[in-house]
Amino acid sequence: MDIYIKDVIKAKGLQLQQVAERIGYKSLPSFYRQINSPESISMKTLLKIADSVGCKVNDFFFPPSEKIVNRNNFLAIVKYNGELKEVTSVEELEKIVGDLKKEEK
């Protein structure tokens, strides 16, 4: 799974060092190792980073250039067929659920 923490930080006009200091890291290398290990980063750390840069945790899972501007107040992240998908409507989510039900039969 790809994670785009560095890209989001850069898109917000911040430096890694600034964010590391804001969330209590003593050194940039330890913060850098953490954000480069998506399989071991905790939700608590993701929440701290998101809060410090002014974004949502789900923003880290999609490249900033691929973000949908109008999410219509609905957002779900679904792992479907081995890929993470950003679902922005109930209808789209219902379609995925319907497809999954068909596959089970």
From TrEMBL:
Q: Which residues cross the membrane?
A: none
**Which molecular-function annotation in GO is an example for this chain?**
DNA binding
Q: Which CDD domains match?
A: HTH_XRE (cd00093)
Give every HTH cro/C1-type domain span. 5-60
Q: Which domain of life is it from?
A: Bacteria
Recorded hits in Pfam families, A to Z, give:
HTH_26 (PF13443)
Q: Which PROSITE patterns match?
A: HTH_CROC1
Q: Which InterPro entries match?
A: Cro/C1-type_HTH, Lambda_DNA-bd_dom_sf
Name of the protein described by the UniProt record: HTH cro/C1-type domain-containing protein
Native organism: Hallella bergensis DSM 17361
